[in-house]
């Protein structure tokens, strides 16, 4: 397949991506959830627009730089799920708020104070969601009572309005989200505070999102492409994986070993708890045992690999989001038909 | 330090990088080794030129796309240590050979045949080094006798000339290189074949390169920046690390945990056998326990982290080469003085 393409290359099957977008939008529609996809997976305005046209309420970004790329391309409802810290970023956030319907998260008074300093003279208040740690041990207040304290601080702060509660739960943490947020909402009510939104997310638990009915909005990124981590977790099948890495065998130094031209510079070193570095489509008997920057070393479960130099293979990476960030362009196809390429416009937006 | 900079950002101390370049050039001069630095670490023509001006015989690249960036910038002696496979790449290689003094490696008849097809009508033969596996289990023929067979095939092939033997040894493999190459050279002599060059490399063993006197040329990449993997291996000290990642604390959800804005999108997931994701300069008591794309979770060995939101830190990454590839620009400084920025011109050259 695609014998003329230089490898390694990142391929995205538009039919599969479209099917993934529609299928999960349908799920959210059925369960009364609003969907706010995370653009970190594809980093392209074209896919973001497709997600919104399918019914998404807006998009999620994690960086102002990503949000700016999306805003420039006409996406107009953006949640940045990140604590914005520092004068330069706060100034950019303020500028961006003139362009789009914007909301952010905060999990400390320090962050709220910074936002308020930047927005105190804003004609429209900035919507700030309080980030809650429901078990992932990353950002977020760990106690529901602290969430209410911060929500009240947001309401008091000049230029800000309380937008709701947000969490990025641990994998398998749907029930924790339900109990944590239920308690927090009760405290909100006690405090006479209106909580307009409860936002949760995560692709690994996307099909059980409705088991936390307290949640009103769901954020998913990986679902548009899917990857080996989600297949291995039973969330989807190999046929649902829209993103693959096309690689060429460049060396067969021994019968039981082969080397491909896809290394960590395209597959990345992300393991997500898995062994090996991606799944070789159609070759369950082979594994990508190790990576260096430009080489992937393939071994067979048993005996010879049967691979020859020049042979091409497609790999479903462990984690698709990070692969998108390694290339300037992705190649688009529908099955065996190549359909051009697309710039990964928000690639490399680190700040 | 650098309070106004947006984070995360990749900083490179020019004084430290220059010192590293000169120190290893001196080592090579003292030991009669020619030095051919690998540009994968910095991916910038400016540093490549500095390496050549310090005395390097030329540069090493792993991709034609990288070599083209360097050739455009005036670097004129390039070894591509990779099996070039595929019509499109072979055509680019041929075009590049008109521009610079070029050599490549090969470890199979398939690769040699492809090179010969592309260069058979070339006015100058392409120099092809035979890649030898002296223990790293990546590319390369595993037996010295096979190296001679391929060297003879290169000599017979139209448009090619045998450029020597090349190996990327396993860490700690200097003695293996010496015995493997000694045997191969004896076989060359037996076969009446002149071997103009024996090229080895690797930063972890850079200070013992002279323990394999059979080697005439040494390739190193990481030595210009150094990183945590080399400090932990005793190759250099923290003061020799030119590349650091500047990060900001964005959350302190619990006394014993803090979150910084440097995640795998800038530090990458490369572990290189280490625990944790980089070294926090001046804070030996803290470690970067886990990364997600935009978050780094910091814990203390014992008790509280003592970190506050807004605080800045500098991190020496586990592996500096892969960090260079994550950003469009690096920020240059000398100690506490910022000196502008530099485009990472060969970033993202995957094919």
UniProtKB/TrEMBL annotation, chains A, B:
Key words of the record: Lyase
SUPFAM superfamilies: PLP-binding barrel
Biological processes per GO annotation: D-serine catabolic process
InterPro entries: Ala_racemase_N, D-amino_acid_metab_enzyme, D-ser_dehydrat-like_dom, D-ser_dehydrat-like_sf, PLP-binding_barrel
An MF annotation (GO) of this entry: D-serine ammonia-lyase activity
Transmembrane segments: none
Domain of life: Bacteria
Stretches assigned to the D-serine dehydratase-like domain: 242-334
Family statement: Belongs to the DSD1 family.
Descriptive protein name: D-TA family PLP-dependent enzyme
